Amino acid sequence: MSVVAKEISCSHCGAPTEFKPGEIIATCKYCGFTTVIQTGQAFNFEHSLILNNYDTARMDSCIRSWMSSGFMKPGDLAKKSKIEENVLVYLPFWLVSVVATTKYKGIFERISPPVTKDGQIEKEHNWLVLARKATAFPTREYNVPIAGKIPYDFRKIEGFAKVLNSEISKDEALELAKQQIEHLHRFLLQKDLDRVIELSTNLELKQMLYLHAPAWFIKYEYKGKLYQLIIEGTSGNVLKGDIPSTRF
User: Fold this and answer.
1) I need a labelling partner for 79 at 20 to 30 A (CA). Which of 54, 103, 156, 212 fits?
2) Count of CB atoms within 10 A of residue 201's CB?
3) pTM of the predicted model, to two decimals?
């Protein structure tokens, strides 16, 4: 059982709002009101919710279907695996909508003599930043279904689900998005440059959205070893799946 490090009173309903060290933004599990922990003030950004479409039984069917498909998996994986853990978690994200402009200068060396090039990449991004630290969640694989978002409503969340608070502030999320977008733009430049000399990225912020989205964390046992699956709770898409080796 997790130990509650601290709690504050919800400024909306007065109920205790629990949080752990490192968490910055907490949501009341009784009324859904969101609070900035350091000040106790109401959270003044849009807080949205992506709905989960799977119960435990339907998720079990989804897992078995994944185990039965694909030539890289052992043929008996679905039959001989045992699901050890199946947990629904609502994860906190920042969705950063920006126009990102990266100015660059570099050298194209695949011809002789080498050519110096400069220019810029300008792209619009709806960049997803997981609002938790020290986690291996595959954020880039997750195409968050924004079209289905609703205003955050604690009544829509299953009683057995876990809801995690944010450990990332708005400013930290924006800086992380900038670093990750710049890394992507640097990657895109590889087709035109062999060596980057100068590179800088500027973000024109359009919107920042705070949201909770469902993911199922599954541990299964196969031939004495444990493996993990992460499945998106809206569509049932597998975001990450450990596959046992077919070698004996």
Assistant:
1) 54
2) 20
3) 0.87
